[in-house]
Each structure stands twice: as C-alpha cells, then as structure tokens.
C-alpha cells in the first residue's frame, strides 16, 4: 500500500499547495494537531487602481461580478510622503490604535493583511469585528489582502521560529511585494505601521518603510486629537503576562476556614459590590462597625455580589481609601475575547492601571484617616448564584452569518452591573444578539477570568414591554407564573357568587360580631381594587369617640398549610409594577371576596378603640366581624367630601372626626420622635384607553386624607403588635427598625458640615428628626427633601422578626418611634399580615369557623424565623422591582417624547448627590431618577470633541471639568449643587446600557 | 481561531484555504492498491483519505434475493482520522446511516441482476477525514467496483457543495464546491452524487442527495438551486478525474499484457 504521507515532489501542483499545521491544547490539557491545506495562487489582486496587471486576473464571484479595485490611485500623503502612501498596519497597530483607524479624518487606503486579521481575531474579537466593519465601508478604502494565499507573499514558518516572528516576517514580505508589484512611476509609498520596536527594526532591515503609530500620527494634522486616541496600554505588549501565573488564589481549606473563624482571624459576611465601581466591594462583618473594603479582582477572588464569603484582613500598608472614581467593566474590558482562555490574565492591563491610579491617590491623600481597612476573600461559604438576565455582547460573537452548527463562546452582560460578564457557549449566537437572555452561572474556576455559565432561555427582543417586564421580575426573583390548579382548588366553590351567609345561625357567624350597622367607608388610591381596610368613627355618650379599623378577613379564606397558603408564603407579597400587579393571592380573593368593596357585606377583622377627643386611647378591643362598607373613596374624593361645607351627613361627619383625631395622633407621634423621611416617588400616569401610551410622569401628591388612613393603620398595627406579643411572647411576628449606627451617617454628616454647615444629630430618632428639620436653605427649598432622601439611605431597613429572636428593647421601630410594631392592615397583599391575623385570632380566643385549623407553625420559632427571612427578602425585592419598573417607564416616556419631538430632552433641575473623580451622580426630582453624569456629559461652552480632563477636590466635594487645553473654560460642580440638566433617553452602544435605555443626563452650561 | 468564510468572503472572494468558490480540492486516486482483494482503490480529496476494498461478487450465504446481487457496506472511520481522537463504535448511528446510503446508491446503480443470489461487500476505511465523508466514500467505492469488474452504466461520482449565507446583505450568497471540515461546520452544505446520462446529449442523473443542514428555500437568492447546480457540475469534474485514473490504470495493465 502506498504511504499516506504525501510526496510533494512528484506532484505537478506541488508548488501551489502547502499546509498549515499547528498544535493547540484543549481545556482538558490534551494536545491537538490541526492540519489544514492552503492553496497558493497568483490571482489575488493587489486592488490598487494604479496597477495595470491585476484587473485582468481579478476573480469573479458566482454571479460573474468582478470586484472593483479599492485602493485609490491618488492616496493621501503626509509631509514625508508627497506621492501618497498605502498603509500596512500590523496587529499591534490595530490593537492599540483602533480608534485612530476609525477616525474619519485620517487613515485612508489601508491594506489589511490576512496575517494581521487572523492574529487580531485571536487576540480580540471585538477589535476584529470593528476592523471588518471598516473593510466593508466604502469611503475608508480598507482592502483585505489575503497574503497567505498569494504565492509570492506566502512564507513558511522556519524551524524553531515563533509564530509571532513568522507573522512579522509575513507582514514585511507582503509590504515588500506591494512596493515591488506596483508600477515604479509616481508610485505611492507602502508604509508598515507597527507599535512594536522589534517589528519596526525587522521591517527596516527588510527594506520596507516602517513607522511606529505615534511617529506616524505626529506627521498628520490634528496631531493632538489623534495622539489622544492611541490606547493607553500601548506598552502592554512587552509585559504581557505569561500563562500559568494568571490564576486566582486558591481558597483556604475548610478546616483552615473553620479554625480561622473560631479564632477570630477570619470573618464571614455577605459580599456586596459597589454599584459605581465593579472592582470594589464591601463586606459587613460582625466584628467591626464599618464594612471592610475589598479592592480588585484578585482580592475579591471570584466572589459574586451576594455570596456569603470568608475574608481575611490585609496588612495595614494595603489599607486604602474607598474609591472616588467610577469604574465600569463595560468601558474597561470591552475588547475581551470570549474564546481564548489559555493566554488570558486574571487582571487585565487596563484594570491594573486603573487600580494603580487609585493606590497613588490613596497614598497621596493628606489625611491618613481616609484610608480604611481592606480585606481579601479567602473562601466562599455559600454561593448565592441565581439566574441572571442580560444581553449577549454583540462584540463577542464571531462570524456574522453562522447558520451552521458551530458552537461559540460569547459574553452575557448581566443587567445588574455588579455581576461580572458570564461566559456562555451557544450555537445560536446571532439569534441571541439583541435579545433579553436568561443564563445561570455554572462555575468559576481559578484559571478563568470570568465565570462560566449556560444559556437558559430567551425572553424576547430588547426594549419590548413583555421582555423587559419579565426580565425585571426574574431579576428580582418575583414569582409571576399563574397560580397552579392546586391553589385555585382552595378557593371557595361559590366563586364570585360567595356571600356572607344570610342567617345568623350559620356557622360562619359564630364568634363574629354584626357591625353592619356602622358607617364604615374605605379610602384608597384611585382605581384600587384590593381594598384591605375600612374605617369608621362615631361619638360615644361619654364624649369620647369609638373608632374602628376593619381589615379584610383573609385568614377566613386562606387556611393554614394548604396549597394556597404555601404559595402565598413563597410569594410573600404582592408586587406592584407600573402596568402590572403580581398578586400574592388569586384574583378572586384579592379583588372580590376579601376586598372590602362598598355596598356589600364582607367578613372583616376589626380593631376598635375608645379615644378621647384629645386622641388618647382609653381602651382597645379586637373582634372578627361582618361589615357593610357605605362607600369607597379615593383620597381626592374623601378630601373633597370633608372640605365640602354643605355635606353634613353622618358619614362625612365621621370622616371629619377621623381626620381631626388623626392629626392629633400624628402630632403625638412626631413628638415622640418619628422621622419624616422622604423617598423619591413618582407616579406614572397611563392612558387608560391604550395602556401603552404613557401620558406623563408625576410626583406623588400628598393629601391630608393620605395621612388620615396612615395614622389609623399605624395605630392598629401598634395595638395589634402589643396584643399578639402578650399572647405569643416567643413567637409573635413583629416588625422592627433598628437604630442606624452613627457611623452610617458619618459620610453624610461630613458632607453636610463642609458644604452647608449643617449638622445631623443621630443620637436618637427625635434628635435626628429635629436636626433634619433645621437643614433648611431658603435659597434652595428642595435641599431639605434631598437631605431626607439621603438620610433615608443611611438607615438600616425595617425587617420582620420573630419576637423570641430579639430582646425586648430591640423591638423598637426607629423610624416610627414606636416601641413595638407589626403589620396587620394589608393581609391581601402581604403575607406577614395574614400570619398576624392568625395570631390575633388565636390571642382573642376566636372559636368560630376555621378555628379548628390550628397552625402549629405559629408557635414554632425556627419555622417562623424562616418565614420572616423569606418575607424580608421578598419585601425588599418587591420594592426594588417596583422602582426598576418605574425607572423603565420613565425611560419609555422620555423615549416616546423623543420620538414625537426629534430634538428630545427635557431641561429640568437636578441635584448633585455624589461626586466622583470622573463624574457625578445627579438626582432629578421631577422624574424621581438619578443618573451618572460622566465627563463627556458635561456641556462646556464652545467645547469640541477633545478629551475631557478633570480635577477632583476631595475635601470640598468639587469636580472641575474642562476640555484638554482649555482650562479657562472649565465647569465645576459640587455636592448638593442645583444644576440645570437635560434629561433624555438615549440608545447607547454598550451592551448594558442598550437594554435598559438608560436615562441620560447632561449637565448644561450655566 | 482561524478566520471564517462568512465574514471575509465578501471582501476577498477567497475561502479559508485559498480556493475560489468553484474549485475542487486536489484529488488523487489509484486503483488495485490491494491485490489480495477482488477490487480496491484509494481516494484522496484534500486531506480526506479513503481506502476501499471489494469482496465479490460471490455466493451470498443466506441471500434470499434470487434475481439480484445484494450490496453490503461496512464503513470504519479510523480513530485518528480527525483532529480529536475519537473511537466510533459499530453501532454508531451516523456510520450506520452512511452504510445504508452507500449500499442503496450502488444497489440501484450497478447491474446487480447479472449476479443473482450473490453478494458484493464494500468495505471502506476512512484514514483521514477533512470533510466530504460521504462523497469520498462513494467515489472510492465507485473506483474499487470498477477494479472489481462489476458492470455499471457509468462511474458514480460525488461531491459536496455548500452556500455562503449572508445576513448583512452585502456579502454575496455564493455557492461553493467541495467543503473542508471547517467549512462544513460553519456553512450549510449537501452531498450529491450523479451518474452520467446514457448518451452524450443526456444530462447527468442525480443518484444520491443528502442534506443535513437547514437552509431557506425559495428565497430570491435561490440558494438551494445554486448549491445543486454547483454540486452537479462538480460531480462532472470529479468523474473526469476518476475516468482518467481508470484509463491510466487500464493502459498500464494492457501494456503489461503485451
């Protein structure tokens, strides 16, 4: 049999065929030898309009079209090349100067060699894609020359020659061929551009004109502007880290962690990443008051925001001030290549550089007090990975048209900025671009920079309402599937036809008081369907008043431990989005059977007080009841009715009584030190006809009737809390709001003191409330609200807890200045209230229908603690989902406005709430949004496209911005400053921004 | 990561190995490579190497068909044939399908009625694989059957053809001939085998056609039609080469007789 090895000499084609062989190692460490054929040819045109030969040999495609020559006959030149030149950049030139090549002012007639293109693809897919886009555009005249396939320019790799050297040689050879191939007369020069010293010398030795990028650019016009565009990391070439040393440090062993924790050397806590700087995270541990800072990828060691980690404090020399700079992963690492794994460093050069600058800052800081303890992660106790919603980074996908089955690796950029990019493998990359995609993280090994995950499903196109809403719900872990049949089976069989039994001998009436005669009414936001609460008040013969708060008796319908109860436990709360409500209980209960609708008898759980006209509580009682609500008011309607002098019916009178009592109650509460905090709240008004078109964004109005309802609900909650605590000393479900540690306010206090001369006294809630009242700037009336908003953020969040798990003094609700508190008044939309109902029913010895179902869980402390934990989690997520939904709709409203009036953007007032070294965070009260303002978003008088420079005075929280070289035209902003900003919704090119349609805020020139 | 066809073809009109759209890889073939068998051949198409041995026609044991010879095919793909070493078991479904396709192609093509109650076994060994598995197997078997002297109306020649699909609208949707392995992974392709018409004026007849990738049909580009046209045309080229191989071999044998 013949030998398989091909005998090149005997073949007539032997000089036109060659083969490319290389060895690669797979992830598992196996070596693979890849052999591919190369057919060398002499009919690859040079594509210059000057060439007399090539048009005759130019090939045609299947339809017989011959491509026209690309390179112009009179190319542009510089001082050094009066006859013009063709540029032959090498790979480094593209790596470091991509922005230059894309610049419309220079760099025409460029020959992109196949060697370069191939190398570029290996190094950075995004840059490769950008280069390809250039070759497709007609005006830039970039020509792809397949030098590896042309007989004359193909070179064989020598024995022992590195692939880089061989490629450099190929570039020189191709450039040489070009200069020899083109006709001698008035020939444009062929110039090799490189950013590598060695290559420069090689080219010169090979007799080819060669320039370094920097030298070449300096002979162009617009030198300054172009020079700025050369990548900072241009020296990155020399110290490219070697593979092998580039892995994350290993985690400590389990036993080492356990002993360390016991000895107090190691600490455990939850890892949180800063939303402004993805390289910086904090961990709050029990041992210290203030959180420890974790800086850099190596220190955070594969921990993802939300993980429970074990940390070790770093030596004092490495302590640093928290970052004052905005660092976004997007902008820093946009050229990462998802496929290549072997030669990749854990920390990219740019990241390292960004951190270095930080260190210098910290060391240069005059006051050492600013540097704070830092730590590094040495182990992960529990991963808190979930499913992440994001978008596929289009720059990381490979070919444009891969209908084949080829698998490729792409980056999924999660919506949540604190989560790193996830590397996923997919066969449908081009279908996924532009979609909202759900993925999970599978693992994060020591040797990969980014975690590895897999595709779960696609939610739909970006920016469509359905996909964005679903993305939001998934992101905040809201369970939004329709209720399963087992749950629906628990509903009353009568359905909407259910009525309070007519005869009072019915078992449903046992233990229930007949309160149908009372003048009960409900006051809720307009359009409210799930009416939880109703009120009444009537004068008593002794001059006091009887006031009743009637809460929907949900516990009558939701029996403990059935499918519906379990579903409600899991959901925890109803989630309100702008256009959607995700119910905790099925519609039938929430909006009909439980809802205290007017003119229909309903079961209720009533709390009644005897109150003196001075709003002192004489006595309180609780009972299950049947009520008949006389009317359902909206806040406005109720206010109008109360204000209407002609109305003097009993219902109106009772509402007036309620209002006056509530005002007195409120006064007392404020006296006790309740905080009047503020959170930015806006309401989105939707056109009810077409729920699509948003009419406007409005800030929430507050009426006296709002606080009427609020006061009595607070009263009911407090009264009930006392009652259940006395019956269930160990297992009452209560709500507490811990007093915030003074250190939380340290930053804000410092800022206020320096900027405005105010001081916050945080010794007690009363003191804080008083000092907040004093923070008034007559020139800037909004400042007070702003400070309240910022103060709110310094507080801890209120939480549900089980009375046995805290000592009695810790039951306190700081914000409401109440000794004890719980949630009782909204059982339709909060599960906690439902549990409290059950506890209260037990506490008052209710023995009617349903009391035969005993919920053992009510007395099981550990079970209740689990429930509390889940409720707190759900509650927080529901709030965040609601806020995110508003944010999305504000964006959509702006977008809609932008579409009707092309020159979009609305000029409004904004307030600076945070200042960074390279940007500021501005809060816009009109829309209740806050946004990052980067240096480029500062409008400067008469400024061009030049690079922005800035100076940050950390002491005075002041940022000065100017265009390079025009320092006289600088703009400066400082903390709390009122600004005129333009808010618009802009589509950004970045993968993260793109989906969320970030509201862009531009600071206008004053 | 080497370049891919779809992103650069539009600019250069070159494929990733330097070929134009309508060029075959280098083909070389020889017959009577294994004297101990009834017929044998070696077929090389680029980096794909297939060796074929024929046993028969001989008496078929347990063969029930009293009118025709039965064609049986065995295909073994060597574990070292591709980049990653992979052992394929006998029961490999893809290999089984390959065997059935080859058997039925030759069952219809050969004059099997001349050998009733007998069987012809085609055994194919893929030593190196760089795309066009079915096409190379068919070609190798064709040549080996000629060597074995089994009568047939013409030589069955096969080739693969694919199409470069563009989504951006700029890259032309060119059909391409004879894909190598990396192209097969990237692009939709089909394998087509034809036999020549009975007289010179008759068109070739497609006898084998298999496509496993998805492609849009009936678009303005008429991609499938273009692929088929290029494939049928490629088969003609391959048949010419194969005919040449047979003729050279024949001449040598005749010369040896003298």
Concise overview:
The complex is a heterodimer of chains A (1006) and B (258). Chain A is built from 27 helices and 37 strands. Chain A is of the alpha+beta class and 1006 residues long.
Description of the structure:
Chain A: This is Chromosome disjunction protein 3. Chain A: Keywords: Cytoplasm, Endonuclease, Exonuclease, Exosome, Hydrolase, Nuclease, Nucleus, RNA-binding, rRNA processing. The complex is a heterodimer of chains A (1006) and B (258). Chain A contains 27 helices and 37 strands. Chain A folds into six domains: 54-237, 3-Layer(aba) Sandwich (Rossmann fold), CATH 3.40.50; 254-382, Beta Barrel (OB fold (Dihydrolipoamide Acetyltransferase, E2P)); 387-461, OB fold (Dihydrolipoamide Acetyltransferase, E2P), CATH 2.40.50.700; 485-735 and 802-879, no CATH class; 740-795, no CATH class; 905-1003, OB fold (Dihydrolipoamide Acetyltransferase, E2P), CATH 2.40.50. The model of chain A is unreliable at 1-10, 233-245, 340-345, 687-695 and 989-996 (pLDDT under 50). In chain A, β33 (948-953) and β34 form a beta hairpin. Chain A has 1006 residues and is an alpha+beta fold. In chain B, the strands form two sheets. In chain B, strands 1-2-3-5-4 form a five-stranded mixed beta sheet. Chain B has a four-stranded antiparallel beta sheet with strand order 7-6-8-9, sandwiched between helices. Chain B has a single domain (25-257), classed as 2-Layer Sandwich (Ribosomal Protein S5, domain 2). In chain B, a hairpin with a 2-residue loop joins β2 (39-45) and β3 (48-59). The interface between A and B is large, with 52 and 58 residues.
Report the portion of residues of chain B in β strands.
Answer: 25-35%
Low-confidence segments of chain B, ≥5 residues, pLDDT <50? none
Count of domains of chain A: 6
CATH class of chain B: Alpha Beta
The radius of gyration over CA of chain A amounts to 35 Å
Q: What name is given to the CATH topology of chain B?
A: Ribosomal Protein S5, domain 2
Order of helices and strands of chain B: HEEEEHEHEEHEEH
The total strand number of chain A stands at: 37
Count of structural domains of chain B: 1
Please, how many helices of chain A?
27
Shape of chain A: elongated
Shape category of chain B: globular
Look at the structure and give the mean pLDDT of chain A. Answer: 80
Gyration radius from CA atoms of chain B, angstroms: 19 Å
Helical percentage of chain B? 25-40%
Pfam family, one (chain B): RNase_PH
Family (chain B): Belongs to the RNase PH family.
Protein name (chain B): Ribosomal RNA-processing protein 41
Main location (chain B): cytoplasm
């Amino acid at each position: 049999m013949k030998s398989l090895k091909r005998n090149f000499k005997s073949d007539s084609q032997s000089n036109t065929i060659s083969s490319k062989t290389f060895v690669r190692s797979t992830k598992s460490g196996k070596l693979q030898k890849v052999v591919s054929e190369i057919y060398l040819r002499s009919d690859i045109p040079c594509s210059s309009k000057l060439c007399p030969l090539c048009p005759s040999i130019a090939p045609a495609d299947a339809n017989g079209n011959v491509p026209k020559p690309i390179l112009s006959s009179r190319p542009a030149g510089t001082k050094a090349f009066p006859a013009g030149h063709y540029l032959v950049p090498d790979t480094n030139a593209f790596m470091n100067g991509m922005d230059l090549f894309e610049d419309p002012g220079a760099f025409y007639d460029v020959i992109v060699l196949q060697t370069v293109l191939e190398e570029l693809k290996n190094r950075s897919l995004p840059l490769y894609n950008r280069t390809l886009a250039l070759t497709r555009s007609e005006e830039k005249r970039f020509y792809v020359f397949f030098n590896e396939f042309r007989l004359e320019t193909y070179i064989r790799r020598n024995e022992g020659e590195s692939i880089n050297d061989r490629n450099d040689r190929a570039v020189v050879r191709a450039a040489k061929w070009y200069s020899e191939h083109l006709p001698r007369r008035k020939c444009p020069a062929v110039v090799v551009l490189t950013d590598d010293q060695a290559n420069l010398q090689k080219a010169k030795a090979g007799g080819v004109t060669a320039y370094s990028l920097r030298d070449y650019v300096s002979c162009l016009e617009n030198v300054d502007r172009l020079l700025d565009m050369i990548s900072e990391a241009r020296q990155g070439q020399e110290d490219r880290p070697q593979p092998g040393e580039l892995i994350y440090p290993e985690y400590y062993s389990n036993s080492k962690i356990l002993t360390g924790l016991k000895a107090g050397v190691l600490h455990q806590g939850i890892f949180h990443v800063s939303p402004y700087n993805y390289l910086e995270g904090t961990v709050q541990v029990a041992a210290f008051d203030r959180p420890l800072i974790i800086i850099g990828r190596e220190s955070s060691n594969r921990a993802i925001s939300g993980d429970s980690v074990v940390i070790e404090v770093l030596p004092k020399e490495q302590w640093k001030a928290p970052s004052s700079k905005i660092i976004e992963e997007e902008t820093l690492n946009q050229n990462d290549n998802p496929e290549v794994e072997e030669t990749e460093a854990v920390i990219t050069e740019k990241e390292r550089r960004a951190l270095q600058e930080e260190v210098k800052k910290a060391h240069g800081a005059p006051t050492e007090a600013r540097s704070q303890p830092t730590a590094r992660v040495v182990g992960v106790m529990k991963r808190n990975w979930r499913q992440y919603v994001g978008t596929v980074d289009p720059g990381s996908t490979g070919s444009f048209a891969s209908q084949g089955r080829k698998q490729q690796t792409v980056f999924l950029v999660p919506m949540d900025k604190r989560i790193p990019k996830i590397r996923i493998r997919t066969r449908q990359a081009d279908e996924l671009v532009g979609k909202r995609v759900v993925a999970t993280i599978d693992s994060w090994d020591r040797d990969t920079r980014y975690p590895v995950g897999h595709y779960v499903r696609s939610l739909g196109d970006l920016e469509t309402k359905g996909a964005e809403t679903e993305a939001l719900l998934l992101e905040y872990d809201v369970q939004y599937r329709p209720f399963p049949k087992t749950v629906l089976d628990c509903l009353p069989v009568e359905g909407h036809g259910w009525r309070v039994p007519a005869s009072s001998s019915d078992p449903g009436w046992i233990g229930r008081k007949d309160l149908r005669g009372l003048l009960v009414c409900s006051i809720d936001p307009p359009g409210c369907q799930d009416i939880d609460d109703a009120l009444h008040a009537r004068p008593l013969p002794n001059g006091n008043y009887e006031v009743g708060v009637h809460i929907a008796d949900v516990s009558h319908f939701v029996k403990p431990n059935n499918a519906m109860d379990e579903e409600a436990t899991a959901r925890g709360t109803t989630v309100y989005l702008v256009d959607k409500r995700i119910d905790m209980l099925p519609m039938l209960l929430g909006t009909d059977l439980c809802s205290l609708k007017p003119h229909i008898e309903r079961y209720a759980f009533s709390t009644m007080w005897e109150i003196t006209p001075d709003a002192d509580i004489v006595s309180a009682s609780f009972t299950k009841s049947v009520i008949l609500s006389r009317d359902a008011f909206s806040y406005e309607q109720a206010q109008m009715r109360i204000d209407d002098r002609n109305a003097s019916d009993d219902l109106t009178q009772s509402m007036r009584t309620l209002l006056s009592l509530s005002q007195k109650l409120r006064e007392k509460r404020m006296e006790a030190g309740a905080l009047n905090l503020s959170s930015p709240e806006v309401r989105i008004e939707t056109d009810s006809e077409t729920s699509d078109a948003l009419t406007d964004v409005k800030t929430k109005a507050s009426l006296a009737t709002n606080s009427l309802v609020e006061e009595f609900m607070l009263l009911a909650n407090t009264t009930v809390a006392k009652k259940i605590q006395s019956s269930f000393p160990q297992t009452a479900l209560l709500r507490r709001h811990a007093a915030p540690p003074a250190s939380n306010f340290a930053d804000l206090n410092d800022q206020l003191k320096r900027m405005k001369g105010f001081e916050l006294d945080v010794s007690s809630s009363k003191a804080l409330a008083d000092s907040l009242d004093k923070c008034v700037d007559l020139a800037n009336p909004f400042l007070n609200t702003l400070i309240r908003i910022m103060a709110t953020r310094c507080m801890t969040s209120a939480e549900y807890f089980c009375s046995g798990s805290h000592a009695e003094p810790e039951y306190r609700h700081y914000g409401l200045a109440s000794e004890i508190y719980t949630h009782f008044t909204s059982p339709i939309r909060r599960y906690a209230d439902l549990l409290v109902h059950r506890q209260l029913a037990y506490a008052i010895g209710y023995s009617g229908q349903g009391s035969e179902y005993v919920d053992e869980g009510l007395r099981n402390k550990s079970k209740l603690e689990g429930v509390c934990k889940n409720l707190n989690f759900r509650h927080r997520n529901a709030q965040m989902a609601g806020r995110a939904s508003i944010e999305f709709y504000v964006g959509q409203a702006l977008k809609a406005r932008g579409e009707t009036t092309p020159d979009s953007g609305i000029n409004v007032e904004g307030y600076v709430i945070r200042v960074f070294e390279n940007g500021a965070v501005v809060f816009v009260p009109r829309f209740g949004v806050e946004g990052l303002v980067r240096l480029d978003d500062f409008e400067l008088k008469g400024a061009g496209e030049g690079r922005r420079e800035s100076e940050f005075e950390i002491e005075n929280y002041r940022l000065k911005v100017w265009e390079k070289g025009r320092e006289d035209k600088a703009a400066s902003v400082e903390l709390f400053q009122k600004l005129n900003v333009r808010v618009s919704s802009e589509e950004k090119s970045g993968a993260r921004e793109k989906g969320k349609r970030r509201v862009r805020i531009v600071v206008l020139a004053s | 990561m080497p370049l891919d066809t779809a992103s650069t073809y539009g600019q250069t009109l070159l494929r990733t190995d330097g070929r134009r759209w309508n060029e075959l890889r280098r083909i070389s073939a020889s017959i009577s490579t294994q004297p101990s068998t009834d017929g044998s051949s070696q077929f090389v198409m680029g980096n794909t190497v297939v060796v074929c041995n024929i046993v028969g026609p001989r008496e078929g044991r347990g063969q029930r068909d009293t009118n025709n010879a039965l064609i049986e095919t065995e295909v073994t793909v060597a574990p070292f044939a591709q980049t990653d070493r992979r052992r394929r078991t006998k029961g490999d479904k893809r290999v089984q399908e390959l065997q059935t396709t080859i058997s039925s192609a030759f069952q219809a093509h050969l004059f099997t009625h001349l050998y009733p109650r007998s069987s012809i076994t085609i055994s194919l060994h893929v030593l190196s694989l760089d795309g066009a598995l079915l096409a190379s197997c068919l070609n190798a078997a064709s040549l080996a059957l000629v060597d074995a002297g089994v009568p047939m109306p013409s030589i069955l020649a096969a080739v693969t053809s694919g199409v470069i699909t563009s989504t951006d609208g700029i890259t032309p949707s060119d059909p391409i001939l004879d894909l190598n392995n990396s192209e097969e992974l990237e692009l939709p392709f089909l394998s087509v085998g034809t036999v020549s018409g009975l007289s010179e004026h008759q068109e070739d007849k497609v006898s084998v056609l298999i496509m496993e990738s998805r492609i849009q049909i009936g678009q303005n580009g008429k991609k499938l039609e273009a692929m088929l046209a290029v494939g049928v045309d490629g088969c003609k080229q391959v048949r010419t080469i194969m005919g040449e191989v047979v003729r050279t071999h024949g001449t040598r044998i005749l010369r040896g007789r003298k």
